[in-house]
């Protein structure tokens, strides 16, 4: 398969700096070598989207901090994601904080709309990322992105790369969730998302939970995008994230999820975000992310 690695080193969407170094950390952890060893063709790393230094950027509206520079960079990512799909590549998007996903999701939405294909999104995250400027306690855009893709929130985000809803909430599922804001929770329920919280995973077990997720998307959509926020992992495995939260996925649970998603035959794109080398120990979070990417793209033990 032709994999196109799209990097967006942007950390304006979170309150902790450092995830702008995530792509470099994943490169160092052998991402390209892992994919090449699996037989994938990985061209040059795309596309070198320029991001202004945060120190010189305008924070702007405290309800949606750094909206201007985030929207500008994500508009470029949307176009690059769409182009990668048009050129027959599997887009593998690397953040940056999770705010970059409004770029990738908008590009995916535009492409599939044009092709008349249905698509879904699996959000693998400790958080819902379903706030709007009205519900967000922090004003950090990385917590508003899934909502924006589903049509809720600031018009500059919901209307990025075309004035239409990019993602149907009925085709959106979350897994690993264990911390939600109250306004966010209400909005998620109203939108009709499918949510497997960490408690649900504990009840059913990881194998059954993953089976439910795959069954949900099969027969419902033509293609699936998976967006992995590394904070879904337990901080003992992945300490290098902006908002570490206890009770996360184990190493083996994450790899099983990734392997089964690959086996579904639906996966058309993937994304790994919130690797923060400043907060990491010996690059272990980036190494975990690279292992997940490998399983998503076909790595098997035997
Ligand atoms: Mn997230």
Assigned CATH superfamily: Ureohydrolase domain
Low-confidence residue ranges: none
The termini sit apart by: 20 Å
> Helix content range of the residues, please?
25-40%
Topology of this protein?
Blueprint: E1 2-8, H1 22-28, H2 31-37, E2 41-42, H3 67-86, E3 90-95, H4 101-115, E4 119-124, H5 145-149, H6 155-158, E5 172-177, H7 182-191, E6 194-197, H8 198-204, H9 206-217, E7 223-229, H10 251-263, E8 267-273, H11 284-296
Parallel strand pairs: 1-2, 1-3, 3-8, 4-5, 4-7, 5-6, 7-8
Written description of the protein model:
- With 302 residues, the chain is of the alpha/beta class.
- The protein has a single domain, classed as Arginase, Chain A (3-Layer(aba) Sandwich), CATH 3.40.800.10.
- The protein has 11 helices and 8 strands.
- The longest helix has 20 residues, at 67-86.
- Residues 98, 125, 127, 129, 142, 229 line the site of manganese (II) ion.
Would you summarize the structure shown here?
The protein is built from eleven helices and eight strands. It has 302 residues and is of the alpha/beta class. The chain has one domain (2-296): Arginase, Chain A, CATH 3.40.800.
Characteristic key phrases:
302 residues, alpha/beta, Arginase, Chain A, eight-stranded parallel β-sheet, 37% helix, globular, binds manganese (II) ion
């Amino acid at each position: 398969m032709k994999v196109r690695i799209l990097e967006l080193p942007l950390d304006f969407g979170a309150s902790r700096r450092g995830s702008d170094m995530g792509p470099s950390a994943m490169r160092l952890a052998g991402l390209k070598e892992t994919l090449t060893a699996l037989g994938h063709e990985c061209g040059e790393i795309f596309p070198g989207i320029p991001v202004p230094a945060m120190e010189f950027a305008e924070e702007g509206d405290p309800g949606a901090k750094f909206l201007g520079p985030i929207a500008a960079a994500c508009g470029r990512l949307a176009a690059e994601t769409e182009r990668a799909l048009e050129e027959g590549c599997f887009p593998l998007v690397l953040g940056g904080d999770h705010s970059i996903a409004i770029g990738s999701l908008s590009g995916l939405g535009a492409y599939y709309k044009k092709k008349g294909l249905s698509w879904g999104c699996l959000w693998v995250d400790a958080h819902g990322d379903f706030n709007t400027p009205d519900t967000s306690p922090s004003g950090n855009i990385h917590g508003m992105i899934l909502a924006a893709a589903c049509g809720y929130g600031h018009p500059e985000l919901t209307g990025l790369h075309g004035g239409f809803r990019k993602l149907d909430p009925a085709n959106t599922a979350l897994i690993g969730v264990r911390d939600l804001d109250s306004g966010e929770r209400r909005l998620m329920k109203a939108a009709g998302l499918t949510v497997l919280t960490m408690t649900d995973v504990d009840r059913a077990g990881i194998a059954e939970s993953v089976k439910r997720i795959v069954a949900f998307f099969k027969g419902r959509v033509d293609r699936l995008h998976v967006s992995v926020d590394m904070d879904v992992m337990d901080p003992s495995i992945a300490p290098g994230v902006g908002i570490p939260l206890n009770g996360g996925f184990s190493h083996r649970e994450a790899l099983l999820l990734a392997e089964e998603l690959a086996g579904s035959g639906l996966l058309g794109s993937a994304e790994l975000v919130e690797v923060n080398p400043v907060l990491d120990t010996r690059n272990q979070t980036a190494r975990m992310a690279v292992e997940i990417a490998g399983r998503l793209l076909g790595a098997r033990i035997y």
